[in-house]
Design brief:
The chain is built from eleven helices and 17 strands. The protein is of the alpha/beta class and 383 residues long. It has a single domain, classed as Alkaline Phosphatase, subunit A (3-Layer(aba) Sandwich). A hairpin with a 7-residue loop joins strand 13 and strand 14. Helix 1 crosses helix 10, helix 2 runs parallel beside helix 4 and helix 2 packs parallel to helix 11. 56% of the residues are buried. Pfam families: Alk_phosphatase (PF00245). Its cofactor is Zn(2+); Mg(2+). Belongs to the alkaline phosphatase family. This is Alkaline phosphatase.
Length: 383
Amino acid sequence: MLAIPAGCGILPGSGEARNVILIVGDGMGAAQRDAIQLAEAGAHGTLTMDALPVQGRVGTNSAERVSPVTDSAAAATAMASGAKTHNGRAGVDAVGNPVPTVLERAAAAGKATGIVTTSQVTDATPAAFAAHVEDRGLHREIARQYLRGGELDVILGGGRRFWKAAEGEPDDLTERARERGYAYVDGRAGLENRGAGGGSRLLGLFAEEAMYEADSESGGGSYAPSVPLPEMTRKAISVLSQDRQGFFLLVEEEAIDAMGHARNAGEMLRAGKALDRSVRVARDFAEEEGDTLLIVVGDHETCGLSVEAPAEGGGAEGGDDGPFEVAGSADQEFVLDCSTSDHTAVDVPLTAMGPGADQLEGAYENTRIHGAMMGAMGLDAAG
């Protein structure tokens, strides 16, 4: 694993990061960011995530035996631990050994930690930061490890059914969470009413499965989380920032990937807009505090997306989706086209600000993100 020294303030400079916020747009490559920009900021506008001062290009290939094209579990493990692994594995290396993650190391250093996602809270990306399994589908075991490990202070997202008592699984893990000091909420009102203070941890499960619906066979889907990602992000920061030692927070927008698999470009754009508004929440906090490393990156690209002009006479043709209006324009439109329903191996863009961000300039593999976060917090990446 790569040890990277601390580096910068709000702009690249000197200092140590008290807080680290890693925001992952699952399935978000360069074309996805371009499309989200057109829909949200306009042809000549700038997304909040694209306005961050440090830019990098990240390689995502996994250690998979048959193909280097990664899945979310392997990509998240590389970012969380600095270890390349096979697809489907979360928090373990290529031979199945558990690897310490940046979230676990931050907790051991006395920092508060949290995960926020629009997917199941036990899905591949969050699992890679706070659990160790050779099969990303072991949702209930991942939930048990969250509680057993004791590192997580905030858990917000979907996947309620994996925590409930069921046939062959008599334990209600939400009750176990309460016993371990978590305040449990299952709706927007409960989250809003839960204060930042009080010393209690926070578990919020807002859907039985993911917080959106996507059907990769029919192309159907709906992105309408009962608790929007920016609100979950704001609440997580509010709770975690009470810790005097600082915090580590993972925020994931999973629906960019899910809607890419479904080739549902309209709902992918909705999810992308929510992601950028969540970045704005984190950016505003980072600017006010001055000691926060903020990173925005995709774990991989999904669907081989391209941004194209509509067919002559308007509308789309072939497999194109759209047209979609360009924000701030009275007549400009664009269409989106996917070349596959799966992941691709293209590099993904990264943007960052704050202490240590200058270590993320240039082109590199996703394992470097782990070293940069560890170094920014003054932690030994080899330990």
